[in-house]
Amino acid sequence: MAKKEDKFKKVIAHAKEYGYIFGSSEIYDGLSAIYDYGHNGAELKKNIREYWWKSMVQMHQNIVGLDASIFMHPTTWKASGHVDAFNDPLIDNKDSKKRYRADVLIEDHAEKILQKAQKEITKAAKRFGESFDEEQFKTTNPRVVKYLTSHREILSRMGKSLENEDLADVKALIEELEISCPESGSKNWTEVKQFNLMFGTKLGASANTATQLYLRPETAQGIFVNFLNVQKTGRMRIPFGIAQTGKAFRNEIVARQFIFRMREFEQMEMQFFVRPGEEMKYYEYWKNERLKWHQSLGLGLENYRFHDHDKLAHYANAAADIEFNFPFGFKELEGIHSRTDFDLKAHEEYSGKKLQYFDPELKESYTPYVVETSIGLDRMFLAVFSKSLVDETLEDGSERTVLKLPAVLAPVKAAILPLVKKDGLPELATQIVDDLKWSFNTVYDEKDAVGRRYRRQDANGTPFCITVDHQSLEDQTVTLRDRDTMQQVRMPISEIKKAIEEKIDFKTWLSKN
């Protein structure tokens, strides 16, 4: 555990040192769970958003984009169920005075049991080698069977209790499992209570006439209320999707783990409208497609897993998370949900407006079913950043810290380095910057010895360094250095742009799977 905590602390420190993430309004001692993205962070965030948007909208003829407003009519949130059902089950420890999400405490406890099973499986795999049958081992080894059964039963019971709003049983489960406060070790708990997560605000100049509004807790409802607007103006035929990225706000009482759980965050969501009865086909399709998207970035297949929900939201008939192995363990990165026709029917009921689709093939009108893919942009940022940050020991025994960001996402694609600050080298380097900046982000760096500059750009996540030396003046060639392999290739200045573009091309990355 200490090793994971040290890794996570390094991620947070590196993010600040290299201009990726700062605490919000730090000069005033900041705000809890609110963060600002620095010059590199803003670029990385933009590039992740574009990678998602291109793959979702540009690559699909039947998916279009939307940018709905943050403020929506307050009845929207009554219809969606957020006013009545958007709650987290919270529990306080009487001794430490710390507040926790009861479901997260139980999930973390269950995860530890699952990790025990995984350790047994890993040991057995090493012992038996190629003859090892993992599925048979899981069902016959008494210890592993006990761990897996316990894990399944804990989550199943919690899911049923939360679904039935039996908060007393949620507390009873915490006590039976002897879950203690992570900070103090105390098992002295209060009752479990529900807490609504929406931020309220007012619209209007006068307090007497102002309308009660909410900052949107999700971006999906903007898509649902615009369903017919988009369908008709875009002449969309089912099945079709509407994609959106944007800010959402949740009054998380237990915001924690850096940018993993924040009060102001950004979502990337796509709602896919299908014929009733076809939702499970597309649910499986999008589970597969979304996992392929994640894997295209090369962060390691072993760092992803699916988790099927035991407790379904009020609108869903199936739900699964793509979980990622963050520095603090496997946690939700993206959700794929079959939302049935709940949302459109609810808005139809509350608005009095018909929200149906006339199917020209079936020659009938119906309320479409919806399959949702929803990913947190900030969580995706943390997944990419944390997994890319590594310490390496080189062949000569020296060490380097390198941020191996996927080149397609890196904030700066190339650093141009004149070997010395004289003899016309800075001028030629500047010419190269002026040429390349039309195609991608570059940076000019002339401070310190070239070896130190390489290390600085490695830690900054820059995939390529272009070194201009005295030979460059003679034959118009430069050295192109790769961040990950540290290999250097001599090439004509005229070929640099093409060489780098091939390595950062969207198609090159997305078509890997």
Task: Describe this structure as you would to a colleague.
- This protein folds into three domains: 42-73 and 197-309 and 316-389, Bira Bifunctional Protein, Domain 2 (BirA Bifunctional Protein, domain 2, 2-Layer Sandwich), CATH 3.30.930; 87-196, Herpes Virus-1; 394-510, Rossmann fold (3-Layer(aba) Sandwich).
- The chain contains 18 helices and 23 strands.
- The strands form seven sheets. A seven-stranded mixed sheet has the order 3-9-10-16-13-12-11. Strands 20-19-21-22-23 form a five-stranded mixed sheet, with helices on both faces.
- A hairpin with a 2-residue loop joins strand 12 and strand 13 (329-340).
- Helix 2 crosses helix 13 (377-388), helix 5 (102-128) crosses helix 8 and helix 7 (142-163) packs antiparallel against helix 8 (167-176).
